[in-house]
Design brief:
heterodimer; A: about 375 residues; alpha/beta; Rossmann fold; seven-stranded mixed β-sheet; about 45% helix; B: about 325 residues; mainly alpha; ABC transporter involved in vitamin B12 uptake, BtuC
């Protein structure tokens, strides 16, 4: 009897959760629609047609709404597929993408894999293809593993572009590059040169040893370093913190212990720079820090006095990446560009862009040089992302 | 009289093999990098691995009753994230309150898992596998996909992991906390009835039940203890790193289980000691800490970590076997 009762209750609980799950999305879209009616001035949320269903930022809702839209009305729908959920950087990229899609009245489908793996992304690409989406913008977790899935998508007439982290040239039509690899290499090298005063030991704290973008930037820095100007700088080690906080802390402390004369650590990764900043602050060393980091995470550590380890650092604006990616997706879908070298298009307020040849044999558009976060502007930016 | 003597011999020799491993590791690392055995480096080691060390004790409780918990990484992420969000929204809260919030959430998570396992009759690995996903998902949900950044933490909270007021200015707070918890658990397992009941359930559940021990309650308690310590570690983790991310603690469960296994805790239950767990966790900490110091390539470091774990366990199993043999000999005579 008892067992029966328990199983009945379990079933009831499961049914309830299902109902609750379904109940959630209509109410969300209701509120979004209500927002449209009441506050048309809210540029981000408003669409041209009231009949367009608003896709919510949450992956599940977007998923459901997107599939309804794609199969139901046959209208345009553009998807963004980021590296993983739970990362504010990705969230900001999605925000920018969604803003433009909403403004253009195009259904926006957001996909965030639970884990940052190529397998999870392949599954989601296949889902999107089955839904009959118009375009996919993807930040690849692996440059090559996604090729079969993305080629299949392109064969079905779906436009494919990538942003943030590139997939190989055969898997895409266009890459939205956050900043040219050379520009980043030069900017970071210049920062190291400036902070060290032109001579001394410095080290790099990277993400994983396999990370596509980090390795490209480090190589670019090494190329820049061959110049006579940097001959007095000595790169002592490239350490890998695997983008794990604890491991990055261990690696930073090991750098400090191994190289007592170290002057600067350059961390071209958001987790690494954060962990290194914390270590440098706690150890109260003279070692300085620069690299690529999120302003909100680094706000506490940016400053020119001795108490702050990071005089300045760089990053691009993920919201702008999302926006540019949105314009690229739209241009690909309406056929005004095909992703060939030399084509021009206008990306709203971002300005005009020309498609260039990328180093890997494909094509790309470059957003612009990385943005410097200094003690003067960090207060303003830490609330943005 | 004789029996007592041999028991003492067992405990000492089991842990001796681990002490040898630890000393060997230290010497090897020290030879390659003289910066290793310095007070600063040791303080960092214990500070950074306080989380692994404390959670290994909780994991030992669960392993002792023949269970396992692979949800601890997610529980840490969830409890730490909740506490950090609360601190972000209520900066006036005292540090102790934030710690209590994290501890309560951790304990609730642990108790829930314990209930599912003992009353739902779900195998521990399945129940905690589910818990792993549920709590990780919840961590993302409550945080709305955002991180809590260093500037959103109060100074008091960030300073907790760096200052020494609990240790009267001599030892870092986290190290004091670790020592206190280890001493408490040593007493708990050695001299309290409840502590001995855990061993009884792990060695022979049926016999324990016949002798009047309420197995289900003991099981739930063990998972609750682990949840309690994990919650505490959630707060420690965020305080130490001054940052809370939805994916923090991912993969930590493996380090914690490895620490227990290296420390001689049997995955079949009933076997393991607080001292062993301490040495096991210390081995893991030294391995994690020292590998970047000895100048081997990054690619080798992970492999070496695995090799050291396997070597330590083999050594442990061999000593165990020799001891069992000697024990049986004693019985025959």
């Amino acid at each position: 009897m008892k067992k029966k009762l328990v199983s009945v209750m379990l079933c009831a609980a499961m049914a309830m959760t299902l109902l609750a799950g379904c109940g959630g999305s209509p109410s969300d879209s209701d509120s979004a629609a209500g927002g449209d009616a009441n506050a048309p001035s809210q540029g981000e949320d408003s669409t041209s047609g009231g009949d367009k269903e608003q896709a919510d930022a949450s992956a599940d809702d977007a998923d459901q709404n997107g599939s309804d839209q794609a199969t139901g009305t046959g209208g345009k729908s553009c998807a963004i597929l980021v590296k993983s959920a739970g990362n504010p950087y990705n969230k900001k990229m999605i925000e920018g993408f969604q803003e433009i899609m909403d403004a253009e009245g195009v259904t926006c489908v957001v996909k965030e894999p639970e884990e940052a793996s190529a397998e999870a992304q392949i599954k989601m690409i296949n889902e999107l293809v089955a839904q009959g989406i118009s375009s996919i913008a993807i930040a690849g977790n692996d440059p090559d593993a996604l090729q079969p899935a993305l080629e299949e998508a392109m064969n079905q007439g779906i436009k494919v572009c990538c942003m943030d982290s590139s997939v190989n040239a055969d898997s895409r039509q266009l890459f939205v590059n956050q900043a040219g690899i050379e520009i980043i290499g030069e900017t970071l090298m210049e920062a190291v040169y400036d902070i060290t005063g032109g001579e001394g030991q410095w080290a790099i704290l990277s993400a994983t040893s396999q990370a596509t973008n980090q390795n490209a930037w480090i190589d670019a820095m090494k190329t820049v370093m061959e110049d006579e100007k940097y001959s007095k700088l000595e790169l002592v080690e490239v350490a890998y913190g695997d983008d794990e906080y604890q491991k990055s802390v261990d690696q930073t402390q090991a750098l400090l212990a191994n190289y007592p004369d170290l002057k600067v650590i350059c961390a071209p990764t958001t987790v690494g720079i954060m962990a290194a900043a914390k270590v440098l602050k706690d150890e109260q060393t003279d070692v300085k820090l620069t690299g690529l980091g999120l302003p909100s995470e680094m706000a506490d550590y940016i400053g020119t006095d001795d108490a702050h380890s990071c005089p300045y650092m760089y990053l691009w604006n993920p919201i702008d990446i999302g926006r540019l990616t949105a314009y690229v997706s739209l241009a690909l879908v309406d056929g005004s560009i095909t992703g060939a070298e030399g084509e021009n298009f206008t990306a709203g307020d971002l300005g005009d862009y020309t498609i260039e040849a990328a180093a890997d044999g494909g094509t790309e558009v470059v957003l612009g040089p990385p943005f410097a976060f200094t003690p003067d502007n960090i207060e303003e930016w830490k609330n943005v992302y | 009289m004789k029996k007592k003597f041999s028991l003492k011999g067992i405990t000492s020799s089991r842990e001796t093999s681990l002490v040898i491993v630890v000393i060997l590791l230290c010497i090897l690392v020290q030879l390659r990098n003289s910066a290793f055995l310095t007070p600063g480096m040791m303080e960092n080691l214990f500070k950074n691995y306080a989380v692994t060390m404390i959670m290994a004790l909780g994991m030992m409780c669960v392993l002792l009753i023949g269970g396992i918990d692979i949800a601890v990484g997610s529980t840490l992420g969830f409890s730490g994230m909740c506490a950090s969000l609360f601190l972000r929204d209520h900066p006036g809260m005292p540090v102790i309150a934030i710690f209590l919030i994290s501890i309560v959430i951790g304990t609730v998570c642990g108790t829930l898992i314990g209930l599912v396992i003992s009353y739902g009759k779900v195998p521990p690995i399945i129940a905690t596998l589910g818990g792993m996903y549920v709590f990780r998902g919840l961590a993302y949900l409550v945080a709305k996909n955002e991180w809590v950044a260093a500037y959103q933490f109060t100074d008091g909270y960030k300073d907790f992991a760096q200052s020494k007021y609990l240790g009267f200015g001599l030892l870092n707070n986290l190290i004091v906390l670790t020592i206190v918890i280890y001493v408490l658990f040593f007493i708990f397992f050695k001299w309290t009835t409840v502590g001995r009941k855990i061993y009884a359930v792990g060695s022979n559940a049926e016999a324990a039940e016949v002798s009047g021990i309420k197995i289900k309650q003991v099981k739930i308690m063990c998972y609750a203890i682990l949840g309690f310590l994990t919650g505490l570690c959630g707060a420690i983790y965020t305080s130490l790193y001054a940052s809370a991310q939805g994916d923090m603690g991912t993969g930590l469960e493996m380090d914690v289980i490895a620490a227990c296994v290296v420390g001689g805790v049997s995955l079949n239950g009933g076997r393991g000691s607080v001292v062993g767990v301490f040495l096991g966790a210390l081995t893991m900490a030294i391995v994690g800490r020292a590998l970047p110091l000895i100048g081997v390539s990054q690619f080798w470091q992970t492999a070496i970590k695995g090799l050291i774990i396997i070597a330590a366990v083999i050594l442990n199993v061999l000593t165990q076997r020799v001891m069992d043999k000697n024990n049986l000999k004693g019985r025959e005579m």
